[in-house]
Amino acid sequence: MISFSIDNIDEYYVKEILQEETNFEKETAEILKDAATLHNDLRNYGNIEEKNKPLIVSGILLALRETEHGNFSLESLTGDTVKTDGSKIYAAIKANLQRANVSPEVKKDKLLSQFAIIRDDVKINEKNANLGKTPIKHFTEFLYKSIYQSLRYNSSAEDYLGRFYGEFMSYSGGDGQNLGIVLTPKHITELFCDLVDLKPTDKVFDPTCGTAGFLIAAMHDMLTKAESDSQRDQIRKHQLFGIEEQSYMFTIATTNMILRGDGKSNLENQDFLRQNPSKLQLKQCNVGMMNPPYSMGSTANTELYEINFTEHLLNSLVEGAKAVVIVPQSTFTGKTRFEKETKQNILKHHTLEGVITLNKNTFYGVGTNPCIAVFTAGIPHRPEKECKFINFENDGFEVSKHIGLVETATAKDKKQHLLDVWFDRTEAETKFCVQTTIEADDEWLHSFYYFNDEVPSEEDFQKTIADYLTFEVNMITHGRGYLFGIEEKENYQETTDIEELPMVAEKGDKYE
């Protein structure tokens, strides 16, 4: 039953009663359209590689900031063959990085080297007969009208840029899903801040920061709670730390932070797993947030398992720090020897607070069943410690046709209930939350600890079988066939027929 509140009554009326699109859905539809248009234009007029598309977008948005200082204008892009449009945009990017006080110099040089494609690519700097201008000018005009002005005048600019990046990169393939990189939805990054009760004095570390979604959410949360301009300045300069291995993602993350007024974010272009945890502890970070690369680990390459990233993060934080990670549910089933040993090591040195099973469509279109785990770093897990295991699959978000995952009128109430249960402000039935002691060999999921004594109907049983088979196929196609006694094969998805998968029952069989 929905508890109507001032926060959601208008949205409920528009969507559920009038059956109309909410402002969020209309805005999202526009973003989807703009992202698709820009992606197609970059392909058709520039023949740009996938990973370079987000870089061109990021660079242009930085250059457009110089229009406010009189150092750059759309009119200056004349298609000159000597002083090209791209060189003018590149000069504006360089000026804006200086204006943002990006330091040290080596970091600024690394960023500029990524943006050099704007200056050096011949095709986008030559006039296109169909456009009547250079493709790079066309891209710049499009971004100015559709995105940059929205960033300046839209009250929800924080959301707008992040959502555009997310949609654009999913169109372009630049989100690196083939590399195991999955962008985190905004409502999840905000939930992370709530689960650790983020304070304006906290220091936040994201070791696989991607486009900086967690750091941006943390910055926004802390700035809102800050009580003075000096404290806000301190947050921007000294309380946000990130690492990103991919150079182009690092550039996008840094740009993302600059566009939100943070030019001194402590982002590093490094391989997190190669960093010494003791040295990382010197940053004195007391909050860790992470969405590690998915489905990269294997029995032949165990260090890339999500559970290993999790342990490395915990070892990199100060004693008593809170760490929140979003990972596939299979991370905590611990079926391989390495994963079992890593879970044991985690409990020897750190404390598991709880695990929240999420909506299966949280990463809509990716096919990952995720969960959130919360830990306390540096304090060994006591055997009598009771952890919370929560089933938050029904989170108030649903898939909307042609748009993706959208928030419904019930989402705010459901999130508030989750937080009330998490912080012991209210009790919940065991079908929502189970509190129990744990063992390292347990599957750290609500489904493992929850006992449902209701007699299931035949429909319930069939649905469970269908859900299981969906999960099984998903795990096998992501290289985790060993969970079901299937030996790993290289390129499993290509070499295995669906008929080879072990099925529980043939279609039409009766379930007794």
Characterise this structure:
This protein is an alpha/beta fold and 512 residues long. The protein has two domains: 19-156; 180-448, Vaccinia Virus protein VP39 (Rossmann fold). The protein is built from 18 helices and eleven strands. The strands form two sheets. It has a nine-stranded mixed β-sheet with strand order 3-2-1-4-5-7-6-8-11, sandwiched between helices. Strands 9-10 form a two-stranded antiparallel sheet. Helix 3 (53-64) crosses helix 6 and helix 3 runs parallel beside helix 11. The chain is globular and about 75 Å long. Pfam families: N6_Mtase. Its EC number is 2.1.1.72.
Task: Looking at this protein, list some descriptive labels.
alpha/beta; Rossmann fold; hydrolase; S-adenosyl-L-methionine; SAM-dependent_MTases_sf; two-stranded antiparallel ribbon; site-specific DNA-methyltransferase (adenine-specific) activity
The helix content is 40-55%
**What would the average pLDDT be, to the nearest integer?**
85
Which sequence of SSEs, written as H and E, runs from N to C?
Answer: HHHHHHHHEHHEHEHEHEHEEEEEHEHHH
Main pleated-sheet profile: 9 strands, mixed
What's the CATH class label of the largest domain? Alpha Beta
Placed side by side, the strands forming the largest sheet appear as 3-2-1-4-5-7-6-8-11
The fourth-level CATH homologous superfamily of the largest domain is: Vaccinia Virus protein VP39
**What gap, in angstroms, lies between the N and C termini?**
34 Å
As a percent range, the share of strand residues is 5-15%
Name the shape in a single word. Answer: globular
Q: Structural class, from helix and strand content?
A: alpha/beta
Count all strands and give the number.
11
CATH fold-level label of the largest domain = Rossmann fold
